Amino acid sequence: MKPFFKKKIMNTEPDKSKELTASISLLNDKLHFKGKVDGNQPISIDYTPPLGDNLGYTSLELLLLSLSSCVGSAMLTFLRKMQKTITACDISAKGTRREEHPTCFKTIALYINLSSPDTTSEDLNKVLKLSEETYCPVWAMLKGNVEISVIHSINS
Predict the structure, then answer these.
(1) Which residue, 89, 119, 131, 144, is most buried by CB atoms nearer than 10 A?
(2) Per-residue pLDDT tens digits for 53-75
(3) Residue 115: φ, ψ to 5°
(4) CA–CA separation, 122 and 84 (whole Å)
(5) How high is the mean pLDDT of the chain?
(6) What is the dihedral of CA 77, 20, 107, 150, to 10 degrees?
(7) Other beta carbons less than 10 A from residue 143's beta carbon
(8) Taking the model in full, what pTM does it have?
């Protein structure tokens, strides 16, 4: 006998395209935190001495990682849609801080080293422009507040 109604299975995973959550917990009597995002390993966040003990990433280091991974994700997604072969990709970021408070970044330089036998500099510039103008939310939040430059090289 068939059931009268079908049981709908609800997805309890949050929709990360709409809302993100993160939490931190203090670990010591200084500024060392454990940071967590559901479903991922915790990370260590701290500040430099004397306020912290340098036991983890600083908040601004995490911002550099966020920008690098956001730009890299958008860039690689578009290059792959263009049927480009990517054999390696390394991105490093260098942020220069203001001297006065708040000592946020005044400039960030992204250094992209891409290995691809069929990606041209024109291809890379095109997808980086898309990343900046439309698809990288971290870049969008920084734009107008921080001067961001991109230096890239392509190895075949």
Answers:
(1) 131
(2) 999 999 999 999 999 999 999 99
(3) -110, 120
(4) 13
(5) 93
(6) 0
(7) 13
(8) 0.88
Q: Can you give the pLDDT at residue 96?
A: 98
How many residues appear in the chain?
A: 156
Beta partners for residue 155, in sequence order: 115
Q: How far is residue 79's CA from residue 8's CA, in Å, rounded to a whole number?
A: 38
- Residue 53, classed as helix, strand or coil, is coil
Six token digits for residue 137: 């939310």
Q: What does DSSP say about strands 88-97 and 105-115: parallel, antiparallel, or unpaired? A: antiparallel
Whether residue 146 contacts residue 81, with contact meaning beta carbons closer than 8 Å, is answered with no
Task: Evaluate whether 92 touches 111 at the Cβ level (below 8 Å).
Answer: yes
Q: Answer whether 35's CB lies under 8 Å from 42's CB.
A: yes
* Cα-based angle 138, 144, 145 (whole degrees, multiple of 5): 80
Taking alpha carbons only, the member of 92, 130, 135, 140 closest to residue 114 is: 92
